[in-house]
Here is the input.
Amino acid sequence: MLGSWQVAPLTAKLGRDLWRIKGQAAAIAVVIAIGVMMQVMMAGLVASLSETRDAYYQGYRLAQVFAPVARAPENLRAELTRIEGVAQAETRIVGAGRVEIEGRPLPIAARLLSLPDFGEPRLGALFPVSGRGLDASARNEALVLESFAKAHDLKLGEPLTVTMNGHRRQLTMVGRVQSPEFLYTAAPGELIPDDARFAVLWMSRSALAANYDLDGAFNEALLSLTRQARLTAVLAAVDRLLTPYGGQGAYGLEDQFSNRFVSEEIKGLEVSALVVPPIFLAIAAFLLYIVISRMVQAERQEIGLMKAFGYTNIEVGWHYMQLVLAIAFAGALLGCGLGIWAGQALIGLYTQYYKFPFLVFQMEPSAFVIGILAALGSAAAGSLFVLRRLVSLVPAEAMRPPAPADFSRSARWAQGLTGLMDQLSRMILRRLLRQPWRMAGAVLGIASGMGLTLSMLTIYAGFERALDLTFQVLDRSDASVAFLRPMPPDALSALQRLPGVWQVEAQRHVPVVLRNGRHSHKSSLTGLGHQARLLRVVDDKGRQQELPGAGLVLAKPLAKILNVQPGESLRVEVREGARPVLQIPVVGLAETLMGAPVYINLEALNRLLQQPGRINAAALEIEPGREAEVYRQLKDMPLIAGVSLQAEAKQAFETLMDQGAGAMRFVMGFMAFIITFGIVYNAARVAQAERARDLASLQILGYSHSEVAYVLLGELAVITLLAIPLGSLIGHFLSFAIAEGFSTELYQVPARFIPQTHGTAALTVLCASAVSGWLVQRGLAKRDLTAALKSRE
Amino acid sequence: MSLLSAFKRPPAALFDDPAAAKQQRGPAYITRDLTKTYGEGRSAVHALRSVDLEITQGELVVLLGPSGSGKSTLLNILGGLDRATAGQVHFLDHDLTLMNDRQLTRYRRDHVGFVFQFYNLMPSLTARENVELVTEIARQPLPADEALALVGLGERLDHFPSQLSGGEQQRVAIARAIAKQPTVLFCDEPTGALDSQTGRAVLRVLADVNRKLGTTVMIVTHAAATAAMADKVLHFADGQIRKVERNANPAAPEDIHW
Here is the structure.
């Protein structure tokens, strides 16, 4: 048993050792800190966002089931309430419309929702931002969704021209509100959220009922559920009840557009929180292993001395382990602090991005514990290998000057090769071969860093490719027009006749639920002409696919979700009109990077629905320079629900990519570079320290500075050159995994082999290597030769 | 390759007649007021205090003195490993104190051989390769095999340092130092890590190099008995040369005991 007075000197040694290697220790602690920071920050973000979302949903009574219906009598509400598992039921009127904003050439698609004339809605409450509530007696008042009002800088009291059910009305905005139902909004037929191009307005029930001829009736039911409720059973019961009234199929919250988007984003963060921190911790463990193994090597005499004094293996081992743990703990603490700081900094941005009206800020306590334990654990694991060697050291042997390292075996490995070399090159090669595992470790470390950099570059290119494919290859229209309801073919000719319109293509979008066994997906069919030119269907080779007589062409990710192959067939439940249930074969797969569309030949679609010649949308190609003229004319066509411009859709996509989860790729790219540089620099520093004596000897023998630098840097160069092809390989596969992680149902990030990104990544590694090499060789000129010879090892 | 044939080779770079009698030669080194101070102010350590010295070409000089007396510092400055704080060091007709790093490297490469207490061999190179390390860059080197034969290691050419004993490693170090046919051979405690028998064998080699190649040899040592084999003995204390002894009849290394 050691008394406290005996421990003190070891503790002092620990402190001095730490101080001596402070540069390297700090670098490793920072790598650990980054890992822990990511863990704490992301777990905190995920926890805060989920909590906030749940609190918002609950506090403002967001419905858990949405049941659209053509027209149902208000007294049906009581029956809905009686369904087993339903806690609350509310009815409302939902209408499509469009809003004209001053200074904007095109009308904006809008959704109008009713609020009870008196009292709060049972479900779907609103968070008031400014202004006041609706006056039930006034027929022309509206509340406007905050994000839309903000996007267009609408002032309270401002008049709005709204077309409802084909009639133009003047409304007054009396309040701005937020709603958990509309955290994200997108223009009709589009998947990418865009605050500016979709308006959400609330009016009093009676006013809206008058406009949509729904007095005493509703066209959407909202339900909340009890804890024990089974969603599928409730949905089925609701459908049974509403079908006679034109029910279009009830769906749960997970299929609700805004919620689906928010949940996907939070899930993306969650995945990153799982994947990223372990990478950093593993690298830190590797670096610690290198540093400690070097220290034990250099301190043979001290270790022998301690053992000679009677310290046990465990006590000596614990002494070095403490050093490792101290670095890891310092890193972990720093990481926790940084994590809290970064979490707090980011959560504000995220709240804004997610449009939560308030924030439940929460740091996940388990993240701290997990972060610290993982840091300590991985650091200790990395060092255990070294400590094993320490145990086997015999005191007497340790006290003698170190025997020269044995190179006789490694020399045999490459006898043929070294025969052709000069002595300096031989030294490089034999040293590398003597500790092949360490060389492999350094190569692997640098290769991983490069792989990470490469995959980030590939992901950047993937985002570019997604934009390019979507807006240059697939959708070549300038604008698309949505009609209020299915129209006869002459609606198309009306568009075609507009001056300035070059080309018009008919489309029909039909909401459906697709099922294959237990897999299902809420989607919509896109009916296109046989050889559509403006919106094209393309296979994975970029060739246009024709749409055959009957059969579906599925976006690849959707085929994966539904687990279906071409040749098999899907059950298609149409959610409009007579709501037929069809069995349609899958005839092909389409390359898409945005959304998960399902294409079908327009004529075949109409035949299946028994509504020949119907269309509800059109793609337009407009003569350059005459856009304004065309927009003006479109504005005056009452049956058009909305017009969306390709340029604006592209802009919205780019914005989406640069914010939120998409922005994480820049952070990760930066981290990847830091890691690469850290590993390369550490490898160079270790090589320099281990060879100090050899290098000094060479200088004493009369070798010039550059010749000595060759021995030091040659090793780094070989390791770097070996790491590059391996890094290419790792990056190639890693990019697929990371692309998968970044992809959501809304958009896919493609990972492809792009030679340029490999070149850039290799160049990054070479630069890191060159800078590290330059930094360490600087030390050669300055040092004291004789001191280097006298120093240990 | 016999030992003798090595000795018949042309002499080292700067000397026309290495085998000639030592008395006829000029000075190899002259120092004037040579001073070396480490640190500044009150913590300054005066390693050398105004040392005036003359070393004749072809001499075997032993530097004796307690630890910290300045002998290794002098060796390092003469060898171009360190710089004087003040004073002058002349090597033949060059002033070492005026040389830059590049010139000092050149000087070490062409004229100086070093032997250290802990050998400082490259563990990754065999005995022969360690010697070739020097012969690759020297102007008029001995073949590596010959240099190793000179130190009695003709049989263990392809062994790595880890496969050699301490005495053998030191002999490889000497072979490496003399393979370039240096003008001067500096030895800092060359027998410090060896037992006495091995130490004597190493001293024998040094004496042979001095006698047969005409190389000026300077040996720093703690072992006073070594002085018996020197032409000149410099006694160091407190950074100064306290006494210079000359030996008319140097002893053979085999007769030295410590």
